[in-house]
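User: Before I run my own analysis I want an independent prediction to cross-check against. Here's the chain; please return only the structure tokens and, at the end, one sentence I can use as a sanity check.
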Amino acid sequence: MTASKLVHIALVGNPNSGKTSLFNALTGLNQKVGNFPGVTVDKKTGALDFEDGEQAVLIDLPGTYSLYPRRGDEWVAYKVMMDADTEIHADAVILVADASNLKRNLLFCSQIIDLKVPVVVALTMNDIAQQKGIKIDLIGLQAELGVPVIPVNPRKNKGLAALKKAVQQISTEQYKAPSRDFIDAKALAPAAVTGMQKLFPKLSEYASLHYLINHENFPLAEREQSLIEKLEEAHQFSPSKVQAEEVMQRYSRIRQIMQKNVVEPDPLEKKLFTDKLDNILLHRTWGYLILLGVLFLLFQSIFWLASYPMDGIEWAFQQVSTALGNNLPTAWWSDLLINGLVAGLSGILVFVPQIMILFGLITLLEDTGYMARISFLSDKLMRKVGLNGKSVMPMISGFACAVPAIMSARNIENRKERLLTILITPLMSCSARLPVFTILISLVIDDHYYFGFLSLQGLVMMALYLLGLVMALIVSYIAKFFIKIQEKSFFILELPIYRAPRWKNAAITMVEKARIFVFDAGKVIMLISLLLWFLSSYGPGDKMETVESKYAAMIAAAPAQADSLSKVQSAEQLKYSYAGILGQAIEPAIRPLGYDWKIGIALITSFAAREVFVGTMATLYSVEEDDDTSLREKLQSATYADGSKVYTLATGLSLMVFYVLAMQCMSTLAVVKRETRSWKWPVIQLVYMTVLAYVLSWGTYVLFS
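Assistant: Structure tokens:
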């Protein structure tokens, strides 16, 4: 490996084989997430550091069971493996194989080896294999496959040094392909394969077979495509027949390898801990009760664990605002700094603890293997509303963010179920709604505990998440009658074994999600906060100056009332500002929901990103009141002209319901358009969610008034 050429290593393997764990262990925090060119499948890349200081790029490809792709993410991995991706070339491959399920993993493993690409097999789950009583002759297995086989345990960082050494060796042209192919690919279609190798001399026999099968999906010249078509016609090439014969030959050889090198226990021996636990967690009654309990604890923990750091951040920003207000001169730039910049920054950072805790807990659930059980438990219910169990994972991901959740719906093969999943996923309460829910719950819901541990605020938070879920199921049930796509589907899911959670992995995820929130969402919030400061500090004509002159005279006449008069002056100036005029223009439309014009401004600005609501309110109330009280205290004391409270129980609940159901996110609409390749579905989504939010918010306000 030379310094001038940066080597690219592809990481491939079956789903649930430990590939993601290995990627995290090899790259740590040195990762980037993007998209593969032309598709909306996540591309995770990271820096792989070797012992001698050299470095390579590790590309985590989507999990796949074989080199015969069906889903969009499988096509991504397939094209890279076939060197048919115009943007990505893999110099070497780390192939992850599950030692506890070796027979199934060897199918994909043998296919990659027959491509004649430099490959190292990373054998994971060795501890699980040992628990099952499986014994593997590593030397014999390595001799049979003809490639290095390295046992690793990413959770405990075992075997990583040996794996890196083997990868470095094969990636520096020290790789020798096995002298014997795993199967005789040429024998499956002799004349056609021979013809392909004349056209493309660098292709292996097995790669030639795949070019015959899938050449239409490869970036080949028109003349080359035509020549391959003629080859197929001349030799009556049948892709389905070839595939079936290939798989049979591979499993025949795999059986021989397993008999020689793997000792497996009697299948009638006692069940593993995983099976025993599944009898409880997947029980037709207890399973659902346990699931509700897990979700309840998840939302309770967000309040329990985040309260102290949030209070600390609020206190720190109050101190900063007070110190700046006492020491800076009275000028527009100091007002911008305190009421624009600091107030906006406070609205971002105060919710970082809750976002970190939410993502950390979700990561722990995934690590333990319980997330897959949620899909399994939900399949029966999902089918009744037109979905299937695979829809659950995008929906659960929607609790974090709708954008990647909608992208992950590509794993659903059935077009109708995929479209329904895309249409309802934004109804899941994403992490961007969390700051809105938190501030509103703390405003209008008492901090009361039942039986000493059941928090009323936590119960309300859970109810909001369940409301989004229930409405999503209702919408799906209704929409399935209007989407006229007839296509059968099957739900096949491999349940991973239960594992102890990886705390390091959870910590990495928490830090990464906090960084994304602060630097991605935070930029939007900060930009809108500064824009709002301008819109709420200035207004058309000379009305603002007239108000200022009026109150200056009043303060000069009654200096003792200066503080109270200043607050009234700020409120009146805000009313005549650009922001005030905009809010008052839409107030008649939102007044039936219990909202004032300031909330109206927040509804408009938060369409860029839902979490902007809090930053908007922080800016508006900071401009109006130059004191050191917290945002919650300012909102609690907010009143109408007649002295009645703005944030009553009815208004707070109405606003929460609105944010559960409304499409307040431009990014989500953009990704729906990208996934459906039409503006029709995002427009339908925007209309139905807005109408649903308005009607149910109005009903909530009327009910609790």
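Sanity check: The chain has 30 helices and eleven strands.
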